[in-house]
Fold:
Amino acid sequence: MATSRSSTPQDTLQPRKKPVQARSSVTVDAIFEAVIQVLLVHGFAGLTTTRVAERAGVSVGTLYQYFPNKRALVAAVIERHLAQIVQAMETVCEAVQGQTLDDMATAVCHAFVAVKMARPEASRALYQPMAELQGQALIMAVMPRAQAMLARTLASASNGPVPQAEVLSLFILTGCMGPVQAVLEMGAPPMMVELLRQHLAAMCRGYLAQAMALT
Structure:
């Protein structure tokens, strides 16, 4: 379905409606999974709503009930992926409240790696669409929530006080992204994933120790 040149990027990326019934949620879940499968086979350039609908076992008309075009569809898949990451981070942050900075850094890094590597092929498939679909804007939409959550956790450290927790949380979150992407682009071999877990945690622990020494 074509969009007019006068449409703004924000308009073209908006879904038509969100599923409210269980059956509708199952349909959207199937469509989202089909997006990943089509991306893995054909890439973003080869992804079409027809291919996604066929893979999901629904009609193109059903797909268009929820999403006006492929850009809006893939943006919704990316937003769900980012929401899952933030939810995983929220869970671990709640679990480590009041622990030491070392324990926090280790738990947060391990959780980030775990959620990204739960389905490495899906994480990898979304990198190209994120570059095409204002992915940075989608990331920045959830970053304040994740940053504030991690900052509150760091501020609760038993070996505090922790000055500039907001700054520390920003650098930890952004510092985790590059190494994870690098390992995903290598195909996420199990040995490298395990090394990533260990080295990323060590990196964040070292950063926190040095940052605290600067204050």
Q: What stands out?
A: The first helix runs from residue 9 to 12. The chain has eleven helices and no strands. Confidence is low (pLDDT under 50) at residues 1-11. The radius of gyration is 19 Å.
